């Protein structure tokens, strides 16, 4: 049966990259449909119709249907990708600022989409991803809501490791759980090679020994100061060079901010991570991906939103049983889940205060 994928925020940096990746990859087949969902204003619809025409001119041979849905009430879709909302900028510097700005949008989208497409699979790109997942999971079946941040972080961790041992990412597997933010939990115990090559294996063993127990927090703090002065001087090459020499755990925390400082987003990496989860859902072959989901004790007894290993189908996620964590990783994961819960509660409190103020 033909598949329909809707994108909310299709005109943004991530949404545009996602469209390109979707239409260039073999994820969809002839007859499937990509729906660009508008905000319900003439300006938004106009822009989406123009984007549609440009895409048709580029990709018509693929025979994938591209349509614009002007009103959320008319939407029909099997998968909905949420890539709308504010991003980090000089006027919204922290995840807290972002939470305050994006919370009303998340609430409104979740309420409307739960009425029109309650049985869709929801892939959440927007940040703070944990807040969005919590809100969407309160409106639909929690099993149908997945934040893509942990997949993005896992891919970055694998690449950071691959680059330090001189191979490409296809040769390395690695997982990052927890928060898509400061409380992320890179799992050194999950790191392994997909090739049997003794020299590479010994380089990886040396890297793990060097960094597995290093103090990421203090390295992040030290390195952030160095980066800030390099960025202030527009020394981008030097900033990226610094990243080659820090721990992969530090690198995945800081490198996206260097990129963001120049192009205000990380569109292609994010589109790729989103597509990996979509691909896993379509193949439904039990491959492991990672995502922020609303847990009720299914992984390490955690209750709340947290990034965990997943198996995904179009009907929803289940926790993947393929990962064995060490005791200290389990402790870090519980600490991350608590930090996420505190941040979510804080955002809810701020929203309540704002509502009381308005009355
Ligand atoms: N998880 C990740 O790794 C990751 C990476 C990059 C961006 N993001 C997040 O994805 C979101 C989009 O990022 P971007 O870089 O594409 O930003 P962008 O500013 O380029 O695009 C934002 C999009 O959201 C739409 N939008 C804004 N307010 C809206 C509203 N009220 N209703 C409907 N649509 C609305 C805009 O029209 C635009 O299409 C942000 O929340 C950002 O933080 C996440």
UniProtKB/TrEMBL annotation:
Record bears the keyword Plastid: no
UniProt key word NAD: yes
UniProt cross-references to Pfam families, sorted A to Z: Ldh_1_C, Ldh_1_N
One biological process term in Gene Ontology: lactate metabolic process
Key words of the record: NAD, Oxidoreductase
Family designation: Belongs to the LDH/MDH superfamily.
Stated name of the protein: Lactate/malate dehydrogenase
Organism encoding this protein: Granulicella tundricola (strain ATCC BAA-1859 / DSM 23138 / MP5ACTX9)
């Amino acid at each position: 049966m033909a598949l329909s994928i809707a994108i909310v925020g299709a005109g943004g940096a991530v949404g545009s990259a996602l469209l390109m990746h979707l239409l260039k990859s073999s994820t969809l087949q002839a007859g499937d449909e990509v729906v660009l969902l508008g905000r319900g204003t003439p300006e938004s619809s106009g822009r989406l119709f123009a984007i549609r025409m440009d895409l048709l001119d580029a990709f018509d041979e693929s025979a994938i249907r591209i349509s614009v849905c002007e009103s959320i009430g008319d939407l029909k879709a099997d998968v909905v990708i949420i890539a709308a909302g504010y991003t980090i900028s000089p006027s919204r510097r922290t995840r807290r600022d972002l939470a305050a700005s994006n919370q009303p949008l998340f609430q409104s989208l979740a309420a409307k989409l739960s009425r029109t497409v309650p049985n869709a699979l929801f892939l959440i790109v927007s940040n703070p991803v944990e807040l969005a997942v919590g809100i969407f999971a309160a409106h639909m079946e929690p099993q149908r809501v997945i934040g893509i941040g942990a997949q993005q972080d896992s891919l970055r961790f694998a690449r950071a490791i691959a680059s330090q041992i001189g191979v490409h990412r296809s040769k390395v597997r690695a997982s990052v759980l927890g928060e898509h933010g400061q409380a992320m939990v890179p799992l050194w115990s999950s790191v392994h090679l997909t090739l049997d090559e003794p020299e590479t294996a010994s380089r990886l063993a040396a890297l793990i020994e060097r960094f597995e127990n290093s103090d990421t927090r203090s390295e992040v703090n030290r390195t952030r100061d160095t980066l800030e002065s390099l960025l202030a001087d527009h020394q981008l090459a030097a900033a990226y060079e610094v990243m080659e020499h820090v721990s992969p755990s530090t690198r995945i925390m800081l490198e996206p901010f260097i990129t963001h400082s120049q192009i205000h987003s990380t569109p292609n990496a994010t589109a790729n991570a989103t597509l990996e989860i979509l691909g896993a859902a379509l193949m439904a072959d039990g491959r492991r991906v990672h995502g922020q989901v609303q847990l009720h004790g299914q992984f390490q007894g955690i209750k709340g939103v947290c990034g965990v290993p997943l198996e995904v189908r179009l009907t929803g996620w289940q926790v993947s049983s393929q990962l064995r964590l060490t005791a200290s990783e389990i402790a870090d994961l519980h600490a991350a889940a608590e930090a996420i819960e505190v941040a979510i509660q804080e955002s809810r409190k701020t929203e309540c205060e704002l509502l009381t103020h308005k009355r």
